[in-house]
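User: For documentation purposes, I need each entry recorded in a consistent format: the amino acid sequence on its own, followed directly by the corresponding structure tokens. There are two entries in this batch. Please keep commentary to a minimum and don't merge the entries.

Assistant: Recorded as requested. Entry 1:
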Amino acid sequence: MKLRQNIFLLLTAFVLSSATHPVAASDNDVDVLLNMVKSFYTVTKEPGAAEQNVQPCYLCIAQKDGVLIPELVRKFFSPSLAQFHLSHDNNHCADFALLVDGQDEDISGFRINAPNVAGDVAQVLVRFKNFGEPNEIHFDFARVSGNWRIEDYGPSGLSLRDTLRQCAKYKS
């Protein structure tokens, strides 16, 4: 009987420690998350140029030849955000771009930070200057059925999800 109690206690301790100390992100997780964030920006550098040229590309991850593909939306966005994209007009009523936190862009110092992964959620920060002003865009992810999906993104204090909700109210 004492052996069973000891085994039970060891298993309980293992389960509790696993729940409170999530497993570190694998290299594959990091690569997947970084590549998903990179797909939102087109980064080029002209030969001899000091700075790279960075252009935001809203929903490029889910488009082919400029057309939104429902299967790609479902593949890269969380179910609720995918549904929102597919059930609403994607021409935003917002007069600014969340990917640069402004109407226009002159991006310098562009860098994508390493993902912060905690179990089945993750965040990646993109930092840059737009017209010399520091900016930070957060990309939030959730693991859905074993695959990373974009849950939300935007600058501090704003998010795609909130912007889409406001646009839907405005258009109603």
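Entry 2:
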Amino acid sequence: MSKLQTEIKWGVVWATAIFLLLCFEYFAGLQELPYLDWGMWVDLLGDVALPALAVGLGLRQKRDQDWEGSMSWRQGFISGLYMTLVALPLSLAYIWAFVEIVNPNYFAVLVDFSVATGQSTQDAAQAYFNLRTYLFQTALNVVAFGVVLSAVFSLLLKTK
């Protein structure tokens, strides 16, 4: 288990950072009209920057502390995938907790905004903005970002 301590740590950091960003948006009022547009930009930025920071810093720590400064692309990529495997179930649990406990009106606001701005019909918005769809999108995003970020940062941080 201690072999994967770094991956577990940074996978937890990744998922927790996204959850805390969602909570920040909510408590700052960025998930309510008229500030929903700002919240979406903050969310987009955070959904890219926070996983990148977690994977990048995690792989750097893995290389420098666990592998004594020497890391191949393959080693880094596999390590990043382990971080992703840790972040995935935690992210799903955090999303569930957020929309069920912290902000139960999350989807209703998104539906109202989507309809009010003409981006969607009521039925289409309700079919799109729901917990099942959001969990599916979260899972896809975590896996996709995990694979891409692991590959990129492994390339940037490899030493052999």
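Summary note for entry 2:
The CA atoms of residues 96 and 131 lie 7 Å apart.
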